[in-house]
Design brief:
heterodimer, A: globular, B: alpha/beta, FAD/NAD(P)-binding domain, Enolase-like, domain 1, 6 domains, five-stranded parallel sheet, about 20% strand
Chain lengths: ~120, ~850
């Protein structure tokens, strides 16, 4: 059994600071978040690569696999589903995802903490 | 008896093969082996002897492998065999044996004519012979070869390469009489004549005459011709070295050679004979493949096996003086009632003959001159039904390709490794879906490689589609993508994928397209949409390390650096607390930089005159050099100067993979140029160019491509080599694999970039000229542009906060990431990387 605690929205940056199909790292309440902007919308996941342990997912290459929006870890290229955080190459591995939206030209993030 | 003492007399190719084969089967070394060698160097590849004149040295031709329990005694020829006491005597003593293997090989046959012993007359058998010929040829003008067979033509080519006007004298009415027929010989003669080699056929040499200095000066032929010559090579055939066996009272074959049965055993059951000295059931074989087969038979017998000599495949395919010649099966049509189908095309200069059984259904043999593409299929079909109509078989590649599917299961596809069609089909059925998989699984195609085209065709025949697709977003490979981008002048990934692909792209195709766009000169790699295609190294113009920090490598062309610049690097490393290490490429790597520090580090370096070293890119890395003639007592050219010029010329060139290079100032090769994609080694008169080397997982020496080049000619060849590589190689394919994958390999590459066979050279030259003039430093270009600089922040919403996850401890006086992959000796708790974090 797990419960999900949703915290408050944080304003992060103007939307134009996010390049299409490329990530940036943001520090939200002490948590490193990787933010992505694609034609499908905005995505937010933890910046920490769960396999390699380094905080680098925001620097991966954004793309698609069978129509699913993805990012590939720059360390060892495992591919993650940006919508769910699930690793598409290693079953059972996933990266926490967070909520993200755009309000009045500003990107906002709300952390999801599973615990 | 499956153990004891083996004495092997002879350390030629076959003698060595026997030792290798025995050790393979007898890893516990129950057989202790003593090898007695006449020559002072261990076994080398005599088949490739002529490569010596292309610059290959003894090391490159070396075949010797040391084994436990094997003693090699060089320069200690056997002088006698005492069968009663079972000892071999040498000048140094006696060697007792339980089993004796004679691998004494053969000696050149020198016809008994006057003057055969004059100074200036040589045979063509050992590396020492070749060294003597090479030395004697210095400053002389004309050479003659007695013998127009395979070895004679090799020798003629060697004399040509040594700069001598060359004649060949052959007693038979055609060249290569043992392998080709009259019409094939005529075609061969046309090729040879075009190279400036004069042929005197159907005529015997009657005498060699000395000049005033007592050395050879002329050949007299039976038809009265007198050929003036300064040097003579006798290549008139070989005779088995059977004198030890004769003296020991062993029975010999009718035309010489030590008589053995199909177990390769002589008339003394403790003595075997293998290779050119052996007469199996009376027949001697002058080719290495049957010798190898005999070596395997004896090794098998010694461990209790019952192998027998399977009979010889005397099929040969070779390139002589640049001409493809192949002969297989009953090439001369000796089978009663057989039929010949011949094909002569004087325009294309191709001759082919197939020998068929009297009912025209079974292929018996054949001869190919000028184009031997059909050889693998035809050789594999000998003894079986024709895989296609005879003329279709001879007409060209397509027909042959289509016919491969009709080969019988027993047809031998790879004769080097005895792999049949059935073996290949089984491997394909077992899941092998491409040529590399078939090679790994069956060993087919791993020796001479001539059957590789057939492996592809058999995959096709089995209905295996060898997908060229780069990834799920593009159906074509990198080369085709490159052509599409170039020809259609596409400047953006989004247009390319919209018009020629599908989906959004991925970490495979995006960097490939980024590299293609960069190779074609589309401005700074971080401009506009291009930035989103780069992997993280190119995106930050630095190398990502496992803790998320980056390393910085400034370019130090040729490894030459002033003390002032060295001090600057030291100051930068100290001020930014960077771990500092000298690289293998003669430069300095600075580790542990955070993304927001990168521009500050570059600022300091760029202001001091440094630029990006592209250590992060699939691009030219470094051109290493030795110190060269400026300082070195042995150097013959300025290797540092050339290395700097090459590094500055090709810096920043984006390619399918990294490119490394080195320049050595003399043949001692201190710069290790032959382990590089392109390596240059100085000669007295210029530069030798080597292509296709690499270190890494599968190290490979580069192959000699051209010799004694001027600096200008060298640069032209490297320009074309690199541009052709950039345009046609596959993703992440180093130059070595790229050349290996080409149909025709190095010869094909030579035809494209030297002979301009594809008419591409002008285009390649122009493309390189554009690269050279278009170069600018990527670091400086970022520093000059606030828009590019904006990417180099730790957090988009907290640019002043450094990444808290990057922390260091001190090890040997330098900062290193916390938590190594291996437990540290000081007992620090290792941090587990590579395992998912458990979340509750």
């Amino acid at each position: 059994m797990s419960t999900t605690t949703t915290l408050r929205w944080h304003t992060v940056c103007p939307l134009h600071r996010l390049d299409p199909d490329r990530g940036v790292a943001a520090l939200v309440d002490g948590v490193q978040v990787a933010l992505f902007r694609t034609v499908d919308g905005l995505y937010a996941i933890d910046n920490r690569d769960p396999v390699g342990g380094a905080y680098v997912l925001s620097r991966g290459i954004v793309g698609s696999r069978a129509g699913v929006p993805t990012v590939a870890s720059p360390l060892h290229k495992q591919v993650y589903d940006l919508r769910t955080g699930d690793c598409l190459d290693l079953p059972g591995i996933s990266v926490p995802r967070h909520e993200v939206r755009c309000r009045d030209g500003m990107v906002e993030v709300r952390l999801r903490q599973e615990g | 008896m499956t153990g004891g003492r083996v004495v092997v007399i002879g350390n030629g190719m076959v003698g060595q093969r026997f030792v290798d084969a025995l050790r393979d089967r007898d890893p516990q070394a129950r057989w202790r082996v003593t090898v007695l060698a006449e020559e002072t160097r261990p076994a080398y590849d005599r088949v490739r002897l002529s490569a010596y004149f292309d610059g290959a040295d003894a090391d490159e031709l070396n075949l010797y492998t040391a084994h436990d329990g094997v003693e090699l005694r060089l320069g200690e020829p056997a002088t006698g065999v005492d069968r009663a006491r079972r000892v071999v005597t040498t000048g140094a003593g006696e060697h007792p044996y339980d089993v004796l293997v004679l691998a004494t090989g053969s000696s050149p046959f020198v016809p008994p004519v006057d003057g055969a012993g004059l100074p200036g007359v040589f045979v063509y058998r050992t590396l020492d012979d070749l060294a003597s010929i090479s030395e004697y040829a210095q400053g002389r003008r004309a050479g003659a070869v007695i013998g127009g067979g395979l070895l004679g033509l090799e020798a003629a080519n060697a004399l040509r390469l040594l700069g001598l006007g060359t004649s060949v004298v052959e007693f038979a009415p055609r060249l290569m009489p043992a392998q080709v027929d009259t019409a094939g010989g005529a075609m061969l003669r046309r090729y040879v004549a075009e190279l400036g080699v004069a042929c005197h056929l159907g005529v015997a040499t009657t005498a060699l005459r000395a000049g005033p200095d007592g050395s050879v000066a002329a050949l007299e032929l039976a038809d009265g011709t007198v050929l003036d010559t300064d040097l003579v090579v006798v290549a008139a055939g070989i005779r088995p070295r059977d004198e030890l066996a004769r003296a020991a009272g062993l029975e010999l074959g009718p035309r010489g050679g030590v008589l053995v049965d199909t177990a390769c055993r002589t008339t003394d059951e403790r003595i075997y004979a293998v290779g050119e000295c052996a007469a199996v059931d009376g027949t001697c074989y002058g080719l290495v493949a049957p010798g190898y087969a005999m070596a395997e038979v004896v090794a098998d017998r010694l461990v209790g096996g019952a192998a027998t000599f399977p009979g010889a495949d005397t099929a040969t395919k070779l390139k002589l003086l640049g001409v493809d010649v192949a002969s297989f099966g009953d090439a001369h049509g000796a089978t009663p009632g057989c039929l010949d189908v011949t094909w002569t095309d004087p325009a294309a200069r191709v001759y082919a003959k197939l020998v068929l059984s009297d009912d025209a259904r079974t292929l018996l043999g054949g001869v190919l001159v000028g184009d031997a593409a059909a050889y693998p299929t035809l050789r594999a079909s000998v003894g079986g039904p024709l895989p296609a109509a005879p003329l279709a078989l001879l007409a060209g590649d397509d027909a042959v390709g289509a016919s491969v599917g009709a080969l019988p299961a027993t047809a031998q596809v790879c004769s080097c490794n005895a792999v049949t069609r059935a073996d290949i089909d089984t491997a394909i059925a077992g899941g092998c879906a491409d040529v590399p998989a078939l090679k790994a699984c069956t060993r087919a195609g791993t020796s001479c490689g001539s059957c590789v085209p057939m492996l592809k065709q058999l995959l096709d025949a089995a209905g295996v589609t060898q997908s060229p697709a780069l990834c799920e977003h593009f159906d074509v490979n990198r080369q085709e993508l490159f052509d599409i981008v170039r020809v259609r002048d596409i400047r953006t990934f989004s247009r390319l994928i919209a018009e020629h692909g599908r989906g959004r792209g991925c970490d495979i195709c995006k960097p490939v397209v980024a590299s293609i766009l960069a190779s074609l000169g589309n401005g700074h790699i971080l401009d506009g949409e291009q930035a989103s295609l780069q992997d993280t190294n190119d995106h930050f113009l630095a190398n990502l390390q496992r803790d998320g920090s980056y390393s910085v490598v400034p370019r130090i062309p040729g490894g030459e650096i002033t003390p002032e610049k060295l001090i600057i690097i030291g100051e930068v490393a100290r001020d930014f607390n960077l771990y500092t290490k000298i690289t293998g490429g003669q430069r300095i790597d600075l580790f542990g930089a955070r993304v927001e520090q990168l521009p500050q580090i570059w600022r300091r370096l760029v202001d001091a005159g440094f630029e990006s070293g592209h250590a992060y890119g699939k691009a030219l890395r470094t051109v290493k050099s030795c110190v060269g003639s400026t300082w070195c007592r042995y150097g013959v050219q300025d290797s540092v100067g050339l290395a700097i010029a090459l590094e500055l010329r090709y810096r920043g060139l984006r390619a399918p993979h990294k490119i490394k290079s080195a320049v050595s100032g003399c043949a001692r090769e201190c710069a290790e140029a032959r382990s590089k994609d392109f390596g240059v080694i100085a000669t007295e008169t210029g530069w030798n160019l080597y292509l296709g080397g690499n270190g890494g997982f599968r190290p490979r020496h580069a192959d000699l491509f051209a010799t004694d080049l001027s600096t200008e000619a060298l640069i032209t060849l490297i320009d074309r080599f690199l541009m052709y590589y950039v345009r046609t190689a596959d993703r992440l394919q180093r130059t070595a694999a790229w050349i290996e994958a080409m149909d025709g390999g190095l010869d094909h590459l030579r035809s494209v970039i030297v002979d301009d066979s594809l008419g591409l050279c002008a285009e390649l030259d122009a493309a390189m000229a554009r690269h050279v003039t278009g170069y600018s430093d990527e670091w400086r270009d970022v520093l000059d542009d606030p828009e590019r600089l904006r990417r180099f922040t730790s957090f988009v919403n907290a640019p002043d906060v450094p990444d808290p996850s990057i922390t260091f401890v001190t090890e040997r006086g330098q900062p290193v990431p916390v938590g190594g992959r291996s437990p540290s000796p000081d007992g620090r708790q290792p941090v587990t990387l590579g395992l998912p974090e458990v979340r509750r």
